[in-house]
Amino acid sequence: MAFVNSDEFLSRSEVAQAISSNNTVLQKRLNFIPELCPVFKNPYTHLESDTRYRFKVHPACRDQLPDIINNPVQTVIGTTSPDDGLRQTYQKKRHIGIVFSGGPAPGGHNVIAGVFDAMMAANPENRIFGFLMGPDGLLEGNYIELTSEIIENYRNLGGFSMIRTGRTKIDTKGKIALARETCKALDLDALVIVGGDDSNTNAALLAQELHNDGIQVIGVPKTIDGDLQARDEDGNTLCAISFGFHTAARAFANDISNLSTDCSSDAKYWHICKVMGRSASHLGLEVGLQVHPNILVIGEELAEFVDTERLERAIKQGTTDYTAYGMTLRHLSRVICDGIVRRAAVGKNYGVIIIPEGVLEFINEIQIFIIKLNTIIADYNDTHDTDFHTDFPTLEDKLDYLRRLARLSREENTFTIWNTRDDDLFNDIPEFFQEGLLTERDSHGNFQFSQVQTEKVIMGLVKDYLKILQEKGDYRLGIERDWYRRTLEKSGLDADAYGPLLFKNYDTADRFLLVRQPIVSLKTLKQELVKTGALDEEDEIPASVQKIFLASVPNFKTQNHFYGYDGRGNDPTWFDCTYAYNLGWTVFSLIASGATGQMAGIKNLEKKFSDWEPIGIPIGPMMHLEERKGKLALVLERTTVDIESPAFQIVKSLREAWLAAEPGPDDYRRPGPVRYAGSGEDDQPLTLILNHLGGQ
Ligand code: FBP
Q: Which atom of ligand 1 is nearest to the CA of 224?
């Protein structure tokens, strides 16, 4: 077919429609209206303190956050018949500023849409300003007014592209002064900070700083990592998960489940899936529950591991072996190898492994390096009022600086952070991993796990050990008995005569036969056949026997995948669309009732939608002291995976079934693609559902 001139082709309406970026699926998504929690169906809301919740307040919080530290948990209550006071404050004309902070998370646009719809319902003269490029926009007074025309283009869509985001931390007097200046110039009544643990920490500090200026500051729990949760001192859940987590997990799960389908079809690859989550393994756990991978690594479990054999050996010798606590990288690689070897034995030379991005943080030997290097870099930047990475641009420069520190530790015993032993151990690490560990920290001083090829570090050790196991004859592909019999009989050989010579389990195995240990090459195969009299020295190994042996040699081939930025940019699930939109409405209720230093939250996310309850969560009382950039600072604690939780215990008890190291099909689960509508409240994070059903 002759191709027409492209202008002419494009001018045809069917062509223009087919390639339009304003496609039907997008339109339907933009038009979807998430359901509102019943309380927001009332024209007015107010707040009620819920005194059932208690917090153990750190004295440093009392000192540093005096005006917000006594904030209670607040429940949003709806009303149709407000008194005059409530009517007036609720309808008061307001200016609100909003900023995204940290990595994008699906649902962010719906937070803005929720605030916008709520404030317009209260008073159509209200105005909302979005700061551009994250906190930098607030510091530089770089903003746009968010109008209905702008917001309509982003409803239920992923990413933060409406106003973008950034990772700048507002952590100095100078930056706070700039933020105050911008808020005042815009005559803001309230500032909304949508971010993770560090950003909500910032929200609390700003709420304190802007308290006397009469500017309210409200945080919103955002992060795909799922490590921003909130519980009171008695373990009552106030915020079970941040928005964005569910979508990212479902998007990763859909992709990984496709890999399971692919690898169980051509049966030749192990897919190594690194899943985002800077430190905690929540995403890994959720994705694991969604797809049932053959091997699932959870960082928190590694940290809690105790090598009882080592411990007992040491006790017998009257010593203590501290290396018995926590799993080493080497041990982890052995555990993975064990799974690969067991599957190979039943002919499964393929599989799916999920490794959380932040897993290295839970491995003692690596964590020590990370903490030491964090401190060294932060100290250097503080002392020299310059940047470590600018002063030492190449890996060699950095290693040289570390060498100097090691020398210093020998000369001055007061300097202990980096000694000769640290330096020697560090020099044993592969270069790409050294670079990873020395990579630039983010503005909060956090180690950037997404920059490190975690899976390469672990799988490097796995491959080395598999080679050893293969040489020892312990790593074999199981040979199907029927195929073996057919192959030998076709070439006129007696399968039962060769069977015991070739296989160690010929008399016992039902289905998969394993080549005997000493046979690790064609040479050793011949030696064994000669030794047993099945072959003369000058004879060739029969072709069918060779074929059987070669089929038993595993070829371990991997494909590495990183599930991070793609899922983070996915359009939100029903859960995140609805959750984030209601968070937006909660934000407005908190603002309208004069709250500050609170984080918007929805209680009962693990239950059915009709039980969801919008609340205000006090940020200050949940903060504690933690090491950041080598110094103690007040921060919101990150929640890691609780290995006692029902969700994790389920994973533990299903591990064998997921490994499927037995003949028969695998137990892969197909969660299907992300949906913004359809199955409604059933579409919640599995971790939340299981923990709820398990009584947590
Ligand atoms: P937030 O904590 O800001 O939500 O970001 C989390 C995250 O997506 C991590 O999972 C990942 O390690 C990191 O961001 C990647 O950061 P960057 O976008 O700067 O590469």
A: 4
